[in-house]
Specification:
Elements: H1 2-9, H2 14-26, H3 31-44, H4 48-70, H5 72-76, H6 86-89, H7 92-103, H8 111-118, H9 124-137, H10 155-168, H11 174-177, H12 186-199, H13 201-213, H14 217-230, H15 233-258, E1 270-272, E2 279-281
Antiparallel strand pairs: 1-2
Helix pairs in contact: 1-2, 3-4, 7-9, 8-9, 9-10, 10-12, 13-14, 14-15
């Protein structure tokens, strides 16, 4: 298994390397070997998201190894295990300590217990740690349980959620991540940007086009912001089209308020302009939208 992980981490396919990184975090191998491979990823991998995740867990496993060496005698005599019930009635510090031990494989608990705790935990620091823990212990099907935390009020929770989702699942999440590029918190923005970079330009552009096509203002505005950061000829052209669409919506809303498109009117009360398609009151023969006289 270790050989397969090593070979996969050298793959040119970012998704193969992502799967290998998850396997590395979940496998029961020698800690020094794990650290060596993690160090290689965060120093050499071309994908910024994988480098960030590898560095995060390198520090975690290194801390665990240093603690084991420092307390070697204690561990050999059998360190007292933490009762999983600490997640129910422990202090925030005790909960975080237990979750860190779970992540570094020093403790065990059913994954379903952790998923249930997502909706019960009130302390944001514990919640953020719990979400990170699921990045190591969870599976792709657990990603849906985390989506709501992308809109959480705490920036640590949002940032950790992006990290965890990047490990669990990639497909169909771009649309949820793109609006976070405008988040006021720097770490959330950075994690969102790394996520999109890891998806590749083609998949990101496809998602942005779909967001613009939706016609929903908040999605169009988020897409425009993301396109402004990509800076390619295609993105510039698409950004212009999106801005025109927004302007068109503003104009439609303006003429709607003036009565060019009466609210609640019956179908026979208006007809469509042959030039621009706007609705015109049957009593008028000039389009209020484009100004063209009707035939």
């Amino acid at each position: 298994m270790l050989l397969n992980i090593k070979n996969s981490l050298d793959s040119k396919d970012v998704e193969v390397r992502r799967t290998a990184l998850r396997s590395l975090l979940q496998s029961k191998i020698d800690e020094t070997e794990r650290l060596s491979l993690l160090e290689k990823v965060f120093k050499q991998d071309e994908n910024p998201e994988l480098r960030s995740v590898a560095r995060k867990y390198y520090d975690l496993f290194l801390h665990k190894l240093e603690k084991e060496r420092k307390n070697e005698t204690l561990f050999q005599s059998g360190e007292k295990k933490i009762d999983p019930k600490v997640l129910d009635d422990g202090t925030p510090d005790e909960k975080v300590e237990f979750l860190k031990k779970l992540t570094s494989r020093q403790e065990k608990i059913e994954k379903e217990v952790l998923i249930k705790k997502l909706s019960e935990e009130k302390d944001v620091f514990v919640l953020a740690t719990l979400i990170s823990c699921l990045g190591v212990l969870g599976e792709s099907q657990d990603a849906d349980s985390l989506l709501s935390f992308l809109s959480h009020h705490d920036s640590r929770v949002k940032a950790n959620t992006i990290d965890t989702l990047s490990l669990l699942k990639k497909d169909a999440l771009c649309e949820r991540i793109i609006p976070l590029l405008r988040d006021p918190d720097a770490r959330v923005k950075a994690n969102a940007a790394n996520y999109l970079k890891s998806m590749g330009l083609q998949k990101t552009m496809t998602t942005l086009k779909a967001m613009i096509k939706s016609g929903k203002r908040y999605q169009i505005e988020s897409a425009i912001y993301a396109l402004s950061k990509i800076k390619t000829p295609e993105s510039s052209k698409l950004q212009d089209e999106a801005r025109k669409l927004l302007k068109s919506q503003e104009m439609d809303n303006y003429f709607f308020k003036r009565g060019a498109v009466p609210f609640g009117s019956a179908e026979e009360d208006y007809y469509e302009c042959y030039n621009c398609g706007a609705r015109i009151l049957t009593a008028r023969n000039v389009c209020d939208h484009c100004g063209v006289k009707q035939r």
